[in-house]
Write a sequence for this structure.
């Protein structure tokens, strides 16, 4: 996960190498110089040799992404990809990214197997994107609500707060989320908190009680219950699995 405002510096893609960045949380500015558009969850960037990764977020924002590097033989042209495309189903994207991270760090699978699966899935998602370029644009008030959650999900916000940020009633907020996101605003908020909490669990040694409070849960039992329901394992089991895989 990048710090507020983005990464300190972009990464340079080496010769005979390509890189994919899948934006999982937050939003980032595009890869072209001067591009002021923000790209959020499910955005996929492709970078060829000599290019640099995306790195900038709004001054009060952040982003996190899954990064995958692929190497190809010298003298062989890298397969052409568009510089950007969109993963059409953000929930599927999150599940697949979690599976890839677990397979890479904890399941003792060969890296070539994981890489081949990831490459094939990106090709599949690119084809789906090409077939749905005329898809509906996100409702502007829904985007305001999403932006508010992205900025304040770690605080004890309510659905009233989210609805007010977009000048909507709570019932209208529910309707827009169900129609466009295929989930409720509460489910969207919980998954933001859980994925960020999972990241904190495996990248810090903070006690679970502290992490719970950092992501809007004053009651640790409520956090642990929500975490188990979301990930299918306890917070301590989740931490042990990933840290164990990383240290093996």
């Amino acid at each position: 996960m990048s710090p507020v405002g983005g990464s300190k510096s972009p990464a340079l893609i080496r010769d005979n190498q390509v890189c994919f960045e899948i934006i999982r949380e937050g939003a980032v500015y595009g890869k072209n110089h001067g591009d002021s558009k923000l790209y959020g969850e499910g955005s996929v960037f492709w970078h060829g040799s000599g290019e640099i990764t995306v790195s900038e977020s709004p001054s009060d924002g952040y982003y996190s992404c899954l990064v995958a590097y692929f190497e190809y033989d010298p003298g062989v042209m890298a397969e052409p990809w568009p510089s950007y495309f969109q993963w059409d189903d953000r929930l599927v994207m999150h599940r697949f990214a979690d599976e890839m991270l677990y397979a890479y760090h904890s399941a003792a699978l060969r890296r070539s197997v994981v890489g081949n699966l990831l490459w094939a899935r990106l090709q599949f998602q690119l084809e789906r994107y090409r077939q749905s370029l005329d898809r509906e644009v996100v409702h502007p008030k829904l985007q305001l609500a999403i932006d508010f959650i992205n900025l304040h999900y770690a605080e004890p916000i309510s659905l009233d707060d989210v609805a007010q940020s977009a000048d909507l009633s709570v019932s209208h907020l529910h309707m827009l989320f169900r129609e466009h996101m295929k989930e409720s605003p509460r489910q969207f908020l919980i998954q933001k908190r859980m994925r960020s909490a999972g990241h904190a669990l495996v990248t810090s040694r903070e006690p679970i009680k502290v992490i719970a409070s950092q992501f809007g849960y004053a009651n640790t039992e409520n956090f642990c219950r929500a975490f188990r329901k979301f990930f299918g394992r306890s917070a301590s089991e989740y931490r042990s699995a990933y840290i164990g895989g990383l240290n093996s």
In short: The chain is about 50% helix and 10% strand.
